[in-house]
Fold these 4 entries.
Entry 1:
Amino acid sequence: MITISMWDNRHRSVAFLLCAAALLAGCSSASTTRLGAKPDRVAAFSLSQLGEPHPLEWQPWVFSRFNRRTDYRVIEMDGRRVLRAQAQTAASGLLQEIEIDPLVSRHLKWHWSVPQLLPEADLSKKGSDDSPVRMIVSFDGDLAKLDVEDRAMAGMVKMVSGREMPYATLMYVWDNKLPIGTFLDSPHSSRVKLIVVESGSGRLGKWVSYSRNLVADFKRAFGEMPEKIITVGVMTDTNATEKDATAYYGDIEITTQE
């Protein structure tokens, strides 16, 4: 997902965690950030103006100046207004800062459409862990509870970025072959858990809807109850495999309703 040829593996891991820090940091130009109030809902792509790169509440999630950015644009498709992502050897995402109690609103719902997969991608390996679509939710928590290595990495992230990294992140992905329901560590950090919600080419080109219980997923991934949700993000990335990909994201909800 994040490869910078002039860095060694340790620096790549730091880069990934800096990306996680960006999920928490957001962008200070957002009006909700200026006012110091974080919304308790996810802003809908369907309510954005056509041609806009994202709703006002969402912000670019840029990993490194060495990476080309994925192009995000609100378009009309199949009678609905959706977010289109186009990546050409690119890696960047969008994020929104939120503040939601998952013990109250625990159901994450979204839909996406993927025209093609990335045959060379392998989410379990550094250097090939691209994905045509990702749905990302990050959580607050006590970083002091982490093991020595993760605390050291968290300290490095804060020193470099000035921001705390998220305590934990769930990342829902579409994989080439791993079975649906697979949970695995990101190859960059055990504080990021990948969850395979779609696999293979059977539903390519179709709108596919999902509903996930965030509390159940968090407990399975990290063995504890989650604290508040602090960001939601999407990402289409192809910089590791150096390929092109297009994907479409519909509206995202975090709700009390199953």
Entry 2:
Amino acid sequence: MGKQIFSRIEHNRTADEIVLQIEQLILEGVLRVNDRLPAERELSRQMDVSRPILREALKILEQRDLLVSRHGGGTFIADVIGEIFSQPVMDLIARHRRATFDYLEYRREIEGVTAGFAAQRATQADRSRLTDIINAMRSAHDTDNFELEATLDVEFHTTVGEAAHNIILLHTLRSCYRLLSNGVFFNRSLVYKYSTSSGSLLEQHVAIYDAIVAGNAQSAKKAAESHMEYVAQALRKAERADDWERVSNLRLQQRSGNSEGIRDGN
């Protein structure tokens, strides 16, 4: 799983100490859902503990629903992202579009606070990760890869949330993005497809990024809020344009059918 993130247990080599370390990594967002732990032999080496003690710790974490073992596939971080709403409420939201814009209004406020904290607290590693994502977004934009750009959009905001170094904000945002990824509120690629200015969304993400890298909390907050306001406006236009396209296609089909009928009648 890349570079070693687990540290040696220095003193009391007990299962509780191992559990505490892994829980901390999950809580701080270092370990994400579906991340695979190193093999038992390697993990015991990294943490400098016996394999029986490690097995005991992993069993405790599984009992707490933080880890899941897949037969023949290893041990993974369980789906620990909480659902903000129950399934019936999510279904209700999906049927009533007003909730979408209430969601974006909420996102405007929480994204602003998060970006401000990120500007104040981002480490060099955070800034490096954000730079990589921004470069990938530019590349996706240049190749008109709407789906990839939309996916990177969520990764960018998630990484800003990590750079804010506030555990509650981090997991609140991840839960929000889960709803977004599941398409409960809207299809993100639709916004990219019908945005009035194809470069506007990229420019907004770059503005957030620049302010965070510069350590300007006020500018980062303002840039994040402006971005969410734009997304709300773009979504309204995108839904309207998508509906126009649907109606136009139906008219075309109907007129084509009528024309064929007239020719057949003659």
Entry 3:
Amino acid sequence: MKVLFMGTPDFAVPVLEALVEKHNMTAVISQPDKPKGRGKKMKPTPVKEAAEKYGIPVYQPEKIKDEKFVELLKGIDADIFVVVAYGQILSQEILDIPKYGCINVHGSLLPKYRGAAPIQWSVINGEKETGVTIMYMVKALDSGDMILKRKMEITDDDTYETLHNRMAYVGADALIEAIELIEKGDVNAEKQEDSLATTAPMIKKDMGKIHWSRNSEEIRNKIRGFNPVPGAYTEYEGEILKIFKADIVEGYEKGEAGEILSVDKKKGFIVKTGNGALLIREVQAKGGKKMNCADYLRGHSVEEGKILGASEDNM
């Protein structure tokens, strides 16, 4: 099948690579390059880098709904459009272009977690199961008929990063299977039950603030869901401290929420939560690198009895 692919981040690359092996890739659409790093050099998107490696033509419109670009899309010979974390909303005019429609790889078991950050919210909310849904695209957000689903376990140690990386390959396999069904005319698409829908809005940095009065599991899930980006954080001595790994520990009932109860230079430090305590194991100081707490404590003073976060954070 002749495929036009739309995608931007790392998550989309395994899907593109799977398509290259099985189908004729006519073009790739990705977001414009952006300046990154201290030198602010223009950096291509991960999908663009992958496409160029395979010699696939790449287009990067500022606005995909621009009239001239829509006409360009109409002139590309493609049977189907595949969209994976592209980053722009497609108009109905674009959705109507390909013979077999536009299909999307979404990182949840729809209709749960419609929106921009389904993987992160599934971890933040403490879900034990998630998956991938391949669906036909419609103008309403993540509401199209579902072609197939693939379930995945969320382990207790999963972070946004580990789940994201596994899901990219599950999504790639599921997409190839979905296209085979479309080619054979064997699709038995399932409508979504809108009453069961939940949302997964875009993650913003300020959402990562830790409120130590919450229960230990809730805080740990936030830490996992914000690892590696944008990072859950608190304040220590007026400076931002990001926390990337923590374990629930038992036997700590007394103390104020956010209070540092004990410090172990080999393991980390224990912080009081609303219903217990967490052992903080991996952190990043302002301007520093992510490191385990043993390394952090060699160069930083962390004192028992100090309170993490401003007082209003812990109410």
Entry 4:
Amino acid sequence: MWQTQAPVYSWIEYGTDTLNLKKAHTLVDGQVICNSTHSKIRLENLPPGQTYYYRACSQEITLYQAYKKEFGYTAVTPFSTFTLPAASEKDFTAIIFNDLHKQVPTLKALHEQVKDTGYDFVVFNGDCIDDPDNEEVAISHMSIQCEVVGAHKVPVFYLRGNHEIRNAYSIGLRDLLDYVGNKTYGAFSWGDTRIVMLDCGEDKPDDHWVYYGLNDFTQLRREQVDFLEKETKSKAFKQASRRIMLNHIPVYGNGDEYEPCPALWAPFLSKAPFDINISGHTHRFAYHPAKTIGNNFPVVIGGGYKKEDATVMILRKRGKEMTLQVVNTEGKELLFLEL
């Protein structure tokens, strides 16, 4: 996914080397999606366990009429690479941010502590592009975040926090993100590890006056009851060697007056063999060992957006061993957990 300043026709050139390239563009109902500044192209059926080279290409469209089209300059990026993990891959390193609230100095200070870890993917666990009031603001901060972590070579997962739900461009974020299964919740496998992402919605009841009757997160949470039932019974979940649960608002250890998720999801979470649950929202780092606050698994909550409160997590798996390390902006280790 990328942005341009002019309407374009875009495509990706890719392959396992730079001399034998395939071309991919986006087709919907037989028509190429173009003449827009938003470019999103999905590469499918890629054999896992290989490194791929790719470059993005965009050709300006200066005229788009029924029987006449004119094109201008073509921009081509340098080649970048990404590696798809094989299903049997046992090793990975991920870095996880939360509650940045568009604070670029905090992001850069945290990334400075993890930039040399050789991470395989990145998670922004909510409230990182908070209260987006227009596309320009949203693109600006997403671009900064993606540039800092190197999103051209490692995948970046954005989980929605309650602040991404707010303001005039909140629905517009769908144009800048590509949701798994077109939902704000879902699951995917990274090698032999299963990662489940949940969306807790807003932090106040749907009938709260600030929502003006325009929210129904009760229904969204109920949808995830069905999702959790299917996911925890799935072959991918059962056969995974490790299982990670990610969500922005803590299901356990939140402390808000309004907490609809624990009771609703408890029938599945109380039995689900997750190795770790990672969340944010409270702006206070916290660690809750398994079975201490009604949780069937360890819960770690990331810090806030101020430099003195912020944290970044490093989740590592090597063979059968998995660890979670939490550090602050000065590199001080707040937690090292063997899972």
